[in-house]
Write a structure and sequence with these properties.
Layout: H1 6-18, H2 20-23, E1 48-52, E2 55-56, E3 60-62, E4 68-69, H3 71-82, E5 89-93, H4 99-104, E6 110-111, H5 119-122, E7 125-127, E8 136-141, H6 150-153, E9 158-162, H7 166-174, E10 179-183, H8 186-194, E11 200-204, H9 205-212, E12 221-228, H10 231-234, E13 241-243, H11 247-263, H12 265-273
Helix pairs in contact: 3-11, 3-12
Amino acid sequence: MHFRSTTIFLLSLALLMMAQATHAADFPRYWDGRERVSKPDLTAVKRIRFVTTVDYPPFNFIDNAGRISGFNIDLARAICAELDVTAICQIEARPWNELQATLESGEAEAILAGLRPTTALRQKYAFTAPYMRLTARFLTLNDHQLTDPIDKTLENKNVGVISDSVHQAIFADYFPKAHWIGYPTRELMLKDLKAKKIDAVFGDGSDLSFWIGSPDAEKCCVFAGRPYTAPQFLGDGLMIATTLQNSDLADGFNFALKSMEAKGTISELYLRYFPIDFY
């Protein structure tokens, strides 16, 4: 996770919400409708404290009123409402490097901040099913879209990526014959795209989705081609982590996530924070 300007993000979010009706698509479904998930008995649970960060908008950020806000925050509240445990739910912000220690010390019951479930972490924590999968996307100027087959089109293009990022690794693996240019910052890369110094950028679809509608973009750009989920690079998706001793909570969260998907609750949250669809 890394810091981005909250002020710029909030301006972008307001503009994007205005475009929601015309630019958004339904959130993908992750649960098999035939799969049954039982609601666990949580009557013995006295507190459910979620910990997250505040430096990854629109998932987690501090709004203009100084309150913690974002997709993950509203997701936690919706889960608690679905489980009828709102009265014992709390949400607290901590620095990223303190999240695991806070969970392991018992100061929190769940991490809701995009913690990737590595093999080592699965030996310590219980993870829910994914509540969102991130994608990598191409972004181009409106009048310079990539055509299929993209791998052939890219042979004569210069594509910007963030140096030493996971998206650089995905691009190099998926398009070994294409030419990429590494950038130290997202801002410089997007500036060069607008100036036509490069033909496209390849990066985090969720991040690029609200940049497209931001004032900085000036309606310059669109997604090109398909989304790349690349699980070998991006993992299996965003999940909620609890301790193994609290695995009943993970089961409860899964029950809530499945129920909320069926009701359209998660789709509504997605449209609220990602009006320009990155799938």
